[in-house]
Amino acid sequence: MTGCWTYQAKDWLQAMEVLKEASKQGYPVGELVSHKFSLDDINEAMETNICMDRFKISVVNG
Questions:
Q1: Is residue 31 within 8 Å of 18, Cβ to Cβ?
Q2: 42 with 60: CB under 8 angstroms?
Q3: Which of helix, strand or coil describes residue 30?
Q4: What is the largest CA-CA distance in the chain?
Q5: Among 6, 8, 18, 54, which one is least packed by beta carbons within 10 Å?
Q6: How many Cα atoms within 13 Å fall on the side-chain side of residue 55?
Q7: Using one digit for the tens of pLDDT, what is the confidence trace for 1-44?
Q8: CA 44 → CA 1, 57, 62, distances in Å?
Q9: 19-23: long-range contacts at Cβ-Cβ below 8 A with a sequence spacing of 24 or more?
Q10: Are the C-beta atoms of 62 and 38 separated by less than 8 Å?
Q11: Does residue 39 contact residue 61 with C-beta atoms inside 8 Å?
Q12: Which residues have a Cβ under 8 Å from the Cβ of 46 and sit 6 or more positions away?
């Protein structure tokens, strides 16, 4: 599953590099993800995302 919101794949790669560098400099980048959901809870994850009162959610497999 790949998610995008008007971004290209290369933009995702650039964002990952920025986050990697920020992490090396001590920024708490892990706090950017406000919620994590399992695939079993995909409906709740989508509802949370649609509310747009969260910064970033993550759906994880496992």
A1: no
A2: no
A3: helix
A4: 36
A5: 6
A6: 6
A7: 555 566 677 887 888 899 899 999 999 988 877 788 888 988 98
A8: 17, 11, 16
A9: none
A10: yes
A11: yes
A12: none
